[in-house]
Amino acid sequence: MKMMWFHLMPYTELPEDFRQKHPSVWVDIHSSLFDPKRAHLMYNDFMDELEFAADCSYDAICVNEHHSNGYGLMPSPNLIASALARRTTQVPICVMGNSLALYNPPTRVAEEFAMLDVISGGRLIAGFPVGTPMDTCFAYGQNPSMLRERYLEAHDLVIKAWTEKDTFAFNGRYNQQRYVNIWPRPVQQPHPPIWIPGGGSVETWQWCAQMDYVYCYLSYYGYKAGKATMDGFWAEMARLGKDRNPYRAGFAQVVAVAESRQQALDLYTEPAEYFFNRCLHIDPRFAAPAGYSTEATQRAGLESMVKKAANAQTLIQGDKTNRGMTMADFVERGYVVIGSPDEVLEQLNALADDLHVGHLMLLMQFGNMGKDLTQYNTRVFAETVMPRLRSRFAEYEDRWWPQPMEAGERAPLPAFAPKLAAE
To answer: What does the DSSP 8-state code read for residue 135?
Structure first.
């Protein structure tokens, strides 16, 4: 099993009365809540945390793309990944990912991902999300009924830009380019491994099977709620004649570990309640625009994580206090894997048994968690839990993992030593 350290980069200082006074953390969140000088410190803490995870020997470090929100301060994950490519040496960098339908032209993604792969020496995992409706349809104004078609065409252009050796013309419905000839080209051939994050769409499952891509279920609500979706995914893989290699899939899970269960509850209750009650405070009017979900997905009774989050907010708002759920709710429902190392190990073994996923994306910084606590959570897991999970799925080959350059072929990186401003 691969254990990957995933950072959302949430804004950590939303006010205590945020739920009561603001309708949504996404799209129309008020700009007065954002303090650039405080965010300067947040970003640098977040970067320290990602580099710390790399030093703790996690299998990969992960970043992603969102817009107009306080849930995740990464409108350009490629900027973060470029810094990580220079400040780390061995760890794969998973950009999960670039929302293809938002780029005009999509060759920008082909170029920037190729740059990241070259700078890092072939350590890139390329994620291609369709994107949440808040990001794509509301923040960036895309027509939801055309979004998937635009996405698929952009994907085809990026793949051809990576693999076609000669200059070519591309004449699609949404993209017309007379000369496509990207420089640089990626180190990994024919291209970096491609992973597709999703929330439970039948078409996404089928497309991942057709293209032999990794399907990543990015759930907010833990492995208990994720079982129905992953059962559906594996049933569809069986119907399509695909094997049950667990590395076909990934899953995101909030994890909080400490020396004892009570210590974990004491340490992580505040950041967990901040994350679920403020960072996921999504107005239902932004969660499911007409045309975003396909007919087949609706007939299958599948709901995206975003829509579930918005529906949860509606239920919570039925309570006049509108305070949200508590840590007890999160633990009971499996939203958070929490406890001592032995207890966390037991829960993650249950996750591996129930979901059959080989790529576990760990959310170990969540909500308003500070750098010290994040590094504590990261270190304790790496020392006490991760070694005991490594042997899971050892009988399978991970064909979807980066193939970097040999160490002796890579550029030596000097120790980081910032100059004094006066110099």
So the answer is: I
